[in-house]
Amino acid sequence: MAHSVLNGAPSVPSRREGTLPDRVLDVLDQIDEFVMELTQVRTILEPPEALHPDDDFGEA
Quick check: 44 pLDDT over 60? Predict the structure, then answer.
C-alpha cells in the first residue's frame, strides 16, 4: 500500500507492462538514477564532513 501512495502505482505490476527483459532493463535504469542521486548527495555532504574536528581535537 505504501508503494501505491508514494509512487502512485500499484504494488503488483500488471502483466501488460512489458516483457521480463524490458522490466529488468527499467529496474537497472532506476538503479543507475538512484546511484547518481546518491553520488550527488555525497558530493554535497563531503565539505561539511571536513569541518568535523579530528579525534585528537582538544587534547593537550
Answer: yes
> 52 vs 9, 21, 42, 43, 55, CA distance in Å?
42, 46, 16, 16, 9
Quickly tell me which residue has 527499467 as its cell. Answer: 26
4 contacts: CB under 8 Å, gap ≥ 6: 10, 11
CA dist., res. 26 & res. 20, Å (int): 10
Q: Are 27 and 18 in contact (CB under 8 A)?
A: no
Domain residue spans in the chain?
Answer: 18-60
Q: Is the pTM of this model over 0.70?
A: no
Question: Residue 56 is which amino acid?
Answer: D
CB 13 within 8 A of CB 23: yes
